[in-house]
Design a protein that fits this description.
The complex is a heterodimer of chains A (676) and B (448). By secondary structure, chain A is an alpha/beta fold. In chain A, 32% of the residues lie in helices and 23% in strands. Among the domains of chain A are: 216 residues, P-loop containing nucleotide triphosphate hydrolases (Rossmann fold, 3-Layer(aba) Sandwich), CATH 3.40.50; 81 residues, no CATH class. In chain A, strand 13 and strand 14 form a beta hairpin. In chain A, helix 16 runs parallel beside helix 18 and helix 18 runs parallel beside helix 19. In chain A, 47% of the residues are buried. Chain B is built from 15 helices and five strands. In chain B, the strands form two sheets. In chain B, strands 1-2-3 form a three-stranded antiparallel beta sheet, with no helix packed on it. In chain B, strands 4-5 form a two-stranded antiparallel sheet. In chain B, a hairpin with a 5-residue loop joins strand 4 and strand 5. In chain B, helix 2 crosses helix 15, helix 3 runs parallel beside helix 6 and helix 7 runs parallel beside helix 15. Classes of the chains: A alpha/beta (676), B mainly alpha (448).
């Protein structure tokens, strides 16, 4: 490892970890070296399966049962961790190296109070028999409001963001030297993610603690890390200081990762994709592990494994190409062209689907006779229109009701009130055969490609089911011809037909789900976060495919997402939802470039950016419960610009332009002022 | 003359169905893979050897006939009223050679002293020689040598058979090396080394003694295997359709359907099962007694009661399966592939058949295997308290019932209970081990 500065807290050298699997040992971590310096945030970036979490678990020796460390050294200060007996290791975990996990909901013990769980760590590691005061200090330090009350509460009483804060408090309890954060914000919404990242950065600065941050999100890396290591197929392929890395990534894989990120500049063009898949780590590699997917690979890459080549100070890259010198800086290439047209042309298309004052309430029942005691107002008066061949993005944090809108639009959920129309017909009044017939026009693609395909059906059966049920195609022969065409359309080989879903990767499964939706020739597809379970490179493939299908077949999308960079890349119009209502609606250019509603502005500013910096509008607190929405404007308790009258009534939507409306009192005032 | 009993028909239909399912599994890769995982477990291989043995006994015992009586030529053929099974043919000696009353295992004299005439003409009390057990021996001094010789001969035969089995298994092992054939071989060995000496001894002794009326206990135990297997399998078959249909419907349709089904099984669960079964069995018994014309032979009458017992037990014990399936279906029906099917307008019955049922099949198979042993044990308990099978039917429950009073006798008659205990223990243990392996093989969460 270069640099070799004396203040390394944690030094990992030649770490190798294997997982025993039926198909042979999987080399999950294969010779990883890095060091973590005091007070530094070091990011380990990679797609799923690259071995980044296994590296973290190997450091703490918390591997799953099938895993074992086969070689290497992990030095914490002066102590070699891999040789320690388990008993001594327990004194290291939590005391000197602490870890926080991705899913705060499962990382806390549900039957112990929050205070108890933090106190446990303190008692175990510091021998402090009376940790009550320390617990309060810690909860205060991680920004839990009213710590004295929260101390006696159980995890289920806390929201996701608070749980993650409690996790961090427990991790900090014994004042560790190193904090390992494994995707600490992946399960959280962007506004909460911004809060947690701020907290981590503050704690790191205050306590000069070293953080090993494991993430797949380059935006988070840009915001948090001082140094970055990129992992691919069990190896580190590039190490660099953050600014150097973002200015000019050196490894072809890292370069491709940047190119695959959707952004508004790439609107007119296809996203760059990385061909193929991450290779199986059970295989023996003779050459570079990335060679099969690399566009600049040549013969030598397939026969000789590259070493980590030093490039200047504290910069390493594992690529033969870089022997000829460093790569040029990354250009944020702006592709001029079609985008102006697409923004303008929005209104020219006819309305395909429409929701007017749509309401979906779920009754809360209690007691012996299931009396209705309340309503969850998941969707509370949403109006939107989707135009033929256009994409409407529905944006919002989890729990705001955006998925419910999508399902109600398809009549997968029965609306409580309002009107849903598709191609001019009111869907709410249809039933039985008519409803079934109308199903042909609209389909849905789900978030989780693992739960959306029946594991017991072959791909051919999955694709054929909808056609059979909706009488698409006159005969079986015609249907199987059509299935073959569909497979080609989504880029899967024909032999996939006879296989089962579990034989495919996540991205391939999502392609099958898209083909299934396409099978009945829909005119509208509701895409419910179709890429949020996928890696960046795979996400780019799916987004390209969706865009291509829209261009060729004129399909309209209702694109439900919380990922704003996808919205910038794909959407023509945007609707922002908060707590069951749409707060702002307009063309993508209007809403994203010049957000008017304070919530939209805060949401946009909270997204970690790869390019440049923006000022973050910090929102306090979290999304309130839709059972008891705040009186007046639902957003006023968190709104930085709230006024007294915001509490009185929900603001009526104000039309700001031909395409744009916003529900905020700020603009009613301006409108009144301008008209008077 | 062949006699076709209702349970015989059902048992053989079940064998056919199992064979059909086996063929179906071969064509379904996910099922074939699951079963391969099951048979990769040594415990499953060993227990299936034991289960095949019991099943073989039960199946041989499920081919019934009435023997032809000796008749003079020209006369019309006549058949005995007694119904026998194919199993009775190899066991004819065991069946026929009865004693007067109790005799201990391998004994050559009776278990109780009797008034006999001594050689010197006086009357005295002593242990009389048995009619059959050790009747070829001149006096007691020859006994030990004779038994040892027979045991060794039995062992020698076992060793020969074992070597043959080992050769066959080695050949199989070359074809399918991933299956733990050694465990199967060990089980076959265990079986052979017990049966070899037992067969050798049973030619001249009562290996497991005799019961109160002098019947060979080994014979009774072997005949009881069929009852246990019938109860275990048929009851499960009765409960499956009810349990599956109600469980899936409750979980899928929810609302009032769920409320009604939950109400029914909660109510059923809160009635003591034994009472319910006792009442139903008594009703059946009354029906049988008032309709003697329906049954030609006593065996058919007893068989009817056995069948009704299976149905009654099945109809009172589907609640567990329903509850588990309801929960699983609640979860599955929210999964996205089910919602996607809704979006295609797929009809409800088809969603249930294609999307729900195949995905709860592993639970059904696990329940099937676990319930089997539960029912075998339940039958013993029910027969013991007198509401189980017909008293003329051989079953472990009736053996235990007959033996219970002798436990307080001095010296104690232990072998009847011990035999019933051992046979049931082995059968239930094998079924449980197999169920365990089946659960591991089919549970998607255990999958590596």
């Amino acid at each position: 490892m270069s640099g070799g500065s004396g203040d390394a807290v944690l030094a990992v050298a030649e770490l190798r970890t294997r997982l025993d699997a039926p198909g042979g040992a999987v080399r999950a971590v294969d010779g990883v070296d890095f060091e973590l310096r005091r007070g530094e945030c070091f990011a380990l970036v990679g797609e799923s399966g690259s071995g980044k979490s296994m590296t973290a678990l190997s450091i703490l020796r918390l591997l799953p049962e099938a895993g074992r460390i086969t070689g290497g050294r992990v030095r914490l200060g002066e102590q070699e961790l891999l040789g320690l007996p388990e008993l001594a290791m327990r004194a290291v975990r939590g005391r000197r190296v602490a870890m926080i996990f991705q899913e705060p909901a499962t990382a806390l013990n549900p039957v112990l109070t929050v205070g108890r769980q933090i106190a446990e760590v303190i008692e175990r590691h510091t021998g402090n028999r009376n940790p009550g005061k320390k617990v309060l200090e810690l909860l205060n330090a991680v920004g839990v409001p009213d710590p004295a009350r929260r101390c006696g509460e159980y995890p289920f009483q806390l929201s996701g963001g608070l749980k993650q804060r409690v996790m961090i408090a427990a991790a900090l309890a014994a004042e560790p030297e190193v904090l390992i954060a494994d995707e600490p914000t992946t399960a959280l919404d962007v506004t909460i993610q911004a809060q947690i990242l701020d907290l981590l950065a503050r704690l790191q600065a205050e306590r000069s603690m070293a953080i090993l941050l494991i993430t797949h999100d380059l935006g988070i890396v840009a915001r948090m890390a001082q140094r970055v290591a990129v992992m691919y197929a069990g190896e580190i392929v590039e190490v660099a200081a953050r600014d150097d890395f973002f200015a000019a990534p050196q490894h072809p894989y890292a370069q491709k990762l940047f190119e695959a990120l959707p952004s508004p500049q790439k609107r007119g063009a296809e996203l760059s994709v990385i061909a193929g898949q991450v290779p199986s780590l059970a295989a023996n590699f003779t050459g570079c592990r990335f060679a099969e997917r690399c566009e600049s690979a040549w013969d030598r890459c397939r026969t000789e494994a590259p070493r980590l080549i030093p490039l200047g100070a504290a910069r390493l890259v594992r690529c033969h190409l870089r022997e000829r010198g460093p790569a040029a800086a990354r250009h944020a290439v702006a592709i001029a062209g079609t985008e102006e047209v697409t923004y303008v042309a929005v209104e020219s298309e006819p309305v395909l689907a429409e929701a007017v004052e749509l309401k979906v309430h779920f009754p809360i029942r209690e007691g012996l006779f299931k009396r209705v005691v309340g309503q969850v107002r998941a969707v509370d008066g949403v109006s939107l229109t989707v135009r033929t061949g256009r994409t409407l993005a529905l944006v919002g944090e989890s729990g705001c009701g955006k998925t419910t809108v999508g399902k109600a639009l398809l009549r997968l959920l029965q609306p409580t009130g309002g009107r849903v129309a598709f191609a001019g017909r009111d869907l709410a009044s249809l039933s039985g055969a008519e409803l079934r017939a109308s199903r042909r026009g609209m389909q849905i693609i789900f978030q989780d490609p693992y739960a959306s395909l029946n594991p017991r059906m072959r791909v051919a059966e999955i694709l054929g089911e909808g056609m059979q049920s909706l009488d698409v195609g006159a005969s079986d022969q015609e249907r199987s011809r059509r299935i073959a065409t569909l497979l080609a359309q989504v880029g899967l080989p024909a032999e996939a037909l006879q296989r089962y879903p579990h034989e495919f990767s996540g991205g391939q499964r999502q392609r099958i789900a898209i083909a299934r939706a396409l099978a009945v020739e829909p005119r509208l597809i509701v895409c419910d976060e179709p890429t949020s379970a996928l890696d960046v490179s795979v996400q780019a493939q799916i987004l390209n495919l969706l865009k291509e299908l829209q261009r060729r077949l004129g399909i309209a999308y209702l694109f439900i997402t919380h990922n704003l960079s996808i919205v910038e890349y794909l959407a023509h119009e945007v609707a922002v939802m908060y707590l069951g209502r749409i707060v702002e609606r307009g063309t993508a250019a209007e809403v994203l470039e010049n957000p008017r509603h304070p919530y939209t502005a805060a949401l946009l500013s909270a997204v970690p950016m790869v390019e440049g910096k923006r000022d973050i509008i910090r929102l306090q607190g979290e999304l309130p419960s839709p059972v008891h929405p705040p009186a007046g404007c639902h957003f006023h308790p968190r709104c930085p610009e709230a006024m007294p009258e915001c509490r009185l009534a929900y603001p009526e939507p104000v039309r700001l332009s031909r395409t744009r409306t916003v529900s905020c009192l700020l603009y009613r005032a301006s409108k009144v002022a301008s008209s008077s | 003359m062949p006699v076709i009993l209702a349970t015989d028909v059902l048992v053989w239909l079940l064998v056919l169905a199992a064979a059909g399912y086996g063929l179906y599994c071969r064509r379904q890769p996910h099922l074939a893979a699951a079963w391969q995982r099951v048979f990769r477990s040594p415990a499953a291989m060993a227990s299936s050897v034991a289960l095949v043995f019991f099943l073989g006994v039960a199946l041989l015992d499920s081919l019934h006939y009435r023997p032809a009586l000796d008749t003079r030529p020209g006369e019309q053929k006549a058949y005995g009223t007694e119904v026998r099974s194919v199993l009775d043919l190899p066991l004819a000696d065991l069946r026929g050679n009865t004693e007067k009353t109790y005799s201990a295992p391998l004994a050559m004299v009776s278990y109780a002293k009797e008034q006999v005439e001594l050689p010197n003409g006086k009357m005295g009390r002593e242990f009389p020689r048995l009619r059959f057990g050790g009747s070829h021996l001149k006096d007691a001094s020859e006994w030990a040598g004779d038994v040892t010789r027979r045991v060794l001969a039995g062992f020698a035969a076992s060793v020969l058979l074992f070597i043959m089995a080992a050769l066959v298994i080695r050949r199989l092992g070359k074809r399918r090396p991933e299956i733990p054939w050694n465990a199967a071989l060990a089980a076959v060995g265990g079986l052979l080394f017990v049966t070899g000496p037992a067969v050798a001894l049973s030619l001249c002794y009562h290996v497991l003694g005799t019961d109160k009326v002098g019947q060979d206990v080994l014979y009774l135990a072997l005949k009881s295997v069929r009852t246990s297997v019938v109860i275990g399998t048929l009851t499960t078959i009765v409960l499956l359709p009810v349990g599956i249909a109600l469980g899936i419907m409750a979980g899928y349709f929810r609302g009032w359907v769920d409320d009604v089904i939950q109400y029914v099984y909660t109510t059923l669960n809160s009635i003591p099962g034994v009472l319910l079964i006792a009442a139903s069995v008594l009703m059946v018994q009354v029906y049988v007694d008032t309709h003697p014309d329906l049954f030609q032979t006593a065996a058919q009458r007893a068989d009817f009661r056995l069948l009704m017992l299976c149905i009654i037990m099945g109809l009172t014990s589907w609640t567990g399966l329903t509850r588990v399936l309801r929960g699983e279906t609640l979860k599955l029906s929210q999964l996205e592939y089910v919602q996607a099917a809704h979006a295609f307008g797929v009809r409800q019955p088809r969603i249930l058949a294609r999307h729900i049922l195949p995905n709860v099949a592993h639970i059904v198979i696990i329940t099937l295997a676990l319930d089997f042993s539960g029912f075998v044990l339940a039958e013993a308990v029910l027969s013991y308290i007198g509401v189980g099978v017909d008293p003329s039917t051989n079953s472990f429950g009736t053996i235990i019932n007959a033996a219970r009073l002798e436990m307080s006798r001095e010296p104690v008659v232990w072998w009847t209970l011990a035999t019933a205990f051992t046979f049931m223990f082995v059968l239930v243990l094998a079924a449980n081990l197999f169920a365990d392996a089946a659960r591991d093989g089919f549970d998607p969460r255990v999958r590596v």
